[in-house]
Design brief:
Radius of gyration: 18 Å
Structural class: alpha/beta
Distance between the termini: 42 Å
Strand content: 15-25%
Number of helices: 8
Strand order of the largest sheet: 1-8-6-7-5-2-3-4-9
Shape: globular
């Protein structure tokens, strides 16, 4: 385990054990999301008695949404948030962060390339002097072309954004909710991972890094690794570089004086569930 950062925000973990939100962004993940949600539930019980499991269905055209609604009707610990239309990976993450209500927030992807049981390793690393635990892949279980693109992408963003991390795009993370008192996320694409880690680092939060396993994808296909999407991502990265590296907008005084809480800005759950195509479903007992 390695540590990065100079300051610690938030309160030390107490013997009473903190509450925990776990969420998964999901898009066409009907073949994996049910087992992931159940394993997350089983793992959360080893950490705390106060937890929730949330799945953000990002407008999946397959039966991901209906499968999750059926599960939520039987399991009060599961909450499902539906996007009426696909909002992109960043949009799903922002909704997940905005929906999380507990002291600690963990997320990973819904494609089962990470094992939710390894969340325990991250929790053990979240001591009183740590605000954010970032996983890093011990090895990458992907086709050769994805490994090559992934290495180039990682080198590029680490260099351009001056990130002191082993693995910028390992979406297996545990953090204190207070992080979002300062960090405000705006991106809707996969660039949100760079945005998140750059802002966490630049605000002085202390980061621990923990090795985790990465598994071959057995269901569905990646939404990122195609040339048009990579091109759009590069354009978005350059815009983000201008905002965060050149102009440093996120650390300017006005950036921290907006009072919007930082939890994803405009995708926070609306007062009316019919607005913007977002609605939540859980079992009747949970709603009561």
């Amino acid at each position: 385990m390695t540590l990065r950062g100079t300051a610690c925000y938030g309160h030390p973990l107490t013997p009473s054990r903190p509450s925990l939100s776990i969420f998964f962004p999901a898009y066409n993940d009907a073949g994996t999301i049910a087992s992931l949600a159940l394993v997350a539930h089983m793992t959360a019980r080893q950490i705390t008695d106060d937890y929730e499991v949330i799945v953000v269905d990002d407008g999946s055209p397959d039966h991901t949404g209906s499968l999750l609604d059926e599960m939520a009707a039987h399991f009060p610990w599961l909450r499902v948030v539906h996007h009426g239309a696909n909002r992109g990976y960043g949009g799903a993450l922002r909704t997940g962060f905005a929906s999380a209500s507990k002291e600690l927030v963990f997320y990973t992807d819904g494609d089962a390339q990470y094992d939710p049981r390894e969340m325990l390793k991250l929790y053990e690393a979240l001591g009183p002097g740590v605000d954010f635990v970032n996983g890093f892949k011990m090895w990458r279980s992907d086709p050769v072309h994805r490994k090559v693109i992934g290495k180039l992408y990682h080198w590029f963003v680490r260099t351009m954004f001056r990130l002191r991390l082993r693995d910028v795009d390992c979406d297996f993370r545990l953090m204190r909710r207070e992080v979002f008192d300062k960090v405000r996320l705006t991106r809707s694409s996969g660039v949100i991972c760079v945005e998140l880690m750059k802002k966490v680092q630049d605000h002085g939060f202390r980061i621990a890094e923990v090795p985790v396993h990465h598994y071959h994808r057995t269901y569905g296909k990646s939404q990122f690794f195609n040339f048009p999407r990579v091109g759009r991502t590069l354009v978005d990265l350059m815009r983000l570089w201008g905002e965060l590296v050149v102009r440093k907008e996120h650390v300017a005084p006005q950036a921290n004086a907006r009072g919007d809480g930082g939890l994803g800005g405009p995708v926070s759950p609306p007062s009316s569930k019919s607005e913007r195509g977002i609605h939540s479903r859980a079992s009747e007992s949970q709603r009561d």
